[in-house]
Amino acid sequence: MKIKINWGTGIVIAMAMFMIFILTFVYKSLTPEYTHDLVSDDYYKDELHFQEEIDKLDNALKLKQNIILSNTNKGITIDFPNDKDFNQIKGKINFQKLSNIKLDFSKDINLKSHEVLIADSLLVPGKWIIKIDWSYKGEDYLLKESWFY
Predict the structure, then answer these.
(1) Which residue segments constitute the domains of the chain, with CATH numbers given?
(2) 94 with 133: CB under 8 angstroms?
(3) More confident site: 49 or 66
(4) Which residues pair with residue 93 across a beta bridge?
(5) 3-class DSSP state for residue 24?
(6) Quick one: pLDDT band at residue 44, thresholds 50, 70, 90?
(7) Three-state SS across 39-61?
(8) What is the widest separation between alpha-carbon atoms in the chain?
């Protein structure tokens, strides 16, 4: 027995295959295996403070020496400017791992020298977004950098 397929049957088969293809992607995108996290939970609130961030970045560009990041075998070393008194530097260091929100963490800046070490135990290899929001004698500064560890 020979099966004959005319053009009408071919169009119906093609449409059914296309619908199955699309529904497969919809199903896969809704499974918990794929998370769709925003970079920030308070995205709109953060956008309102964007000009303040730009001002802090401009202040940091005016420094003679800015913060220096470096990878070591113990972790990431953050060197603050040597011309500033480290006892008067206050702020927060944020690490964001874009591939997994559960790895994000923050540390308050409490300096005992001009150098801070972020321990290897807190970091996994890959790309990190490092945001250091700090102030010195009432002047605010910001360093935002993509960093590979």
Answers:
(1) 43-148 (2.60.40.10)
(2) yes
(3) 66
(4) 107, 132
(5) helix
(6) confident
(7) CCCCHHHHHHCHHHHHHHHHHHH
(8) 91
pLDDT tier for residue 76 given thresholds of 50, 70 and 90? very high
pLDDT band at 133 (very low <50, low <70, confident <90, very high): very high
DSSP 8-class letter at 62: T
The span from the CA of 14 to the CA of 79, in Å, is: 62
pTM: 0.69
What confidence score (pLDDT) does residue 40 get?
A: 65
Q: CA distances (Å), 80 to each of 97, 117, 140, in order? A: 23, 11, 14
The residues, any chain, with a CB within 8 Å of residue 67's CB and separated by 6 or more, are 60, 78, 79, 80, 81, 132, 134, 143
DSSP of 67-112? -EEEEETTEEEEEPPTTS-GGGEEEEEEEE-TT-GGG-EEEE---S
Report the DSSP pairing between strands 115-119 and 105-108.
unpaired
Half-sphere CA count of 96, side-chain side, radius 13 A: 13
